[in-house]
Structure formats: C-alpha cells, structure tokens
C-alpha cells in the first residue's frame, strides 16, 4: 500500500466503523513509497473485515491487494516481571524455533510478548513455552 500520512486510519477506520476490534497491528518501514500493514481480528470477524478491506479500502487507498489467514493463533507470554528480566523474548523465540514453529507476527508491550503462529502449532507452542518458563511445575 502507499506509505503516506493517514493510511493507517484509512485502513482501520472502516474496520472500526463496522464494530470490528483490531488486535495486533504491525506496519513496516516504507520502501520506495510503499509499505506493508498487518493486523489481526477475532476469527469470527475475519470474513467481514476481509470484505471491508477488499470492497472499500483497497480501491480508496489504491493498495496492491489484501491477503489474510484465518488459520492463525496468538500465543502470549505475560507478566509484570518482564520489565526487569532481560532475555525473555529471546527465550520465547528460541523455544518456538527449537520446535520449528514459525512466527508470523510479533507484538510487544512492557508486560506482554505476543506472537501469531499457525493454529496447528498452538497447543505445542503453549506446552514448550510452559516448559521454557518452568510453568509446568506445581507451586511450592
């Protein structure tokens, strides 16, 4: 899509007007006047969001196109201690990589790291992250 001021609003405005909640949002650095813009919505809203983008947004902003995946899952590592512990993201990414789980999107905040992965790996990802962060042990 074109990389210009207001483009995020032109994309997400119609989605919000349809009462669709947007979660992870990622925009890459523009190159040659173009950029990629990715976001997630709840699976139940996926088709509706896709139709809005294809019918309203793409023609208006003259984007090259829209692609989507309704077979992804979000897995998060959450905790206040993330502010003071170095290397938690790297630990998470290594645990997933060791199981050949590809990360499609990453979003972070002060207390949370979320990744979007293929839904077929969701249970495996949760198990390996529990193990990596020693969460499978019973509390003492």
Describe the structure.
This protein has 140 residues and is of the alpha+beta class. The chain has 4 helices and 5 strands, in the order αββαβαββα. The chain has helices spanning 7-17, 46-61, 88-98, 122-132; strands spanning 22-27, 37-41, 72-78, 103-108, 112-118. It has a 3-stranded antiparallel sheet, covered by helices on one side. Strands 1-2 form a two-stranded antiparallel sheet. Strand 4 and strand 5 (112-118) form a beta hairpin. Helix 1 (7-17) crosses helix 2 (46-61) and helix 3 packs across helix 4. The longest helix is centred in the middle third of the chain and has 16 residues, at 46-61. The protein is elongated.
Features:
140 residues, 3-stranded antiparallel sheet, two-stranded antiparallel ribbon
Helix content: 25-40%
Strand line-up of the largest beta sheet: 3-5-4
Structural class: alpha+beta
Name the shape in a single word.
Answer: elongated
Tell me the total number of β-strands: 5
Instruction: Report mean pLDDT, rounded to a whole number.
Output: 91
Hey, roughly how much beta strand do the residues contain? Answer: 15-25%
Q: In sequence order, what are the helices and strands, one letter per element?
A: HEEHEHEEH
Cα Rg: 17 Å
Main beta-sheet annotation: 3 strands, antiparallel
Q: Provide the low-confidence segments as ranges.
A: none
Q: What's the N-to-C terminus distance? A: 53 Å
Task: Count up the helices.
Answer: 4
